[in-house]
Specification:
The chain is α+β, with helices and mostly antiparallel strands. It has helices spanning 20-38, 63-66, 71-78, 111-121, 143-150, and strands spanning 83-87, 92-97, 102-107, 126-131, 134-137, 153-157.
Length: 167
């Protein structure tokens, strides 16, 4: 009796049957992602912190480039070259220094990270320009001009503690 001979394998790797569904899902996500990100839900004028938010501006000239974008892209649109301060899995943050102001640009790989960041920023209060997976922290006087360039929504976050009295 002769024993069966092992078959020669091709040097080229083919995906195993177990990896095929994962590859198909990834390919499907790449096809659907632009469609999903292009169709955002409406804004009811309420910020996630319960405060009133300014209406969203979607017709900003560069909004198509910004939604969502890298720190460097947003920095370029605002007229600076960002110095990256944080490069982590949950966020990237760059510092811009211009004649008008110093400001921070923070981007997130997922919307949930942005919302968590904003929830934590409530402690400090203030106004922020918020877009799809990005936040710009700049002095309030410049928020409208940045919104004209980038789109997004101005959100006012209430700080923790008593409100200062008008005395």
């Amino acid at each position: 009796m002769s024993q069966p001979q092992p078959t020669a394998r091709s040097p080229r790797r083919t995906p195993s049957r177990a990896h095929r569904p994962r590859a198909l899902a990834a390919a499907g996500a790449l096809i659907v992602l632009p469609l999903v990100t292009a169709c955002g839900g409406g804004d009811d004028g309420e910020g996630t912190d319960g405060g009133k938010a300014a209406p969203s501006v979607t017709a900003a000239p560069a909004a198509g480039v910004v939604a969502p974008a890298k720190v460097e892209v947003i920095a370029g649109l605002t007229g600076c070259k960002a110095k990256i301060r944080i490069d982590a899995d949950e966020l990237r943050q760059g510092l811009c220094h211009t004649k008008k102001a110093d400001y921070l640009i923070t981007t997130f790989p997922e919307e949930r990270f942005k919302e968590t960041w904003l929830e934590e920023a409530r402690v400090y209060g203030g106004k922020y320009l918020v877009g799809p997976r990005w936040v710009v922290s700049v002095k309030p006087a410049l928020l409208e001009s940045f919104r004209a360039k980038l789109g997004g929504t101005i959100r006012e976050l209430r700080g923790i503690g008593p409100k200062p009295s008008g005395r």
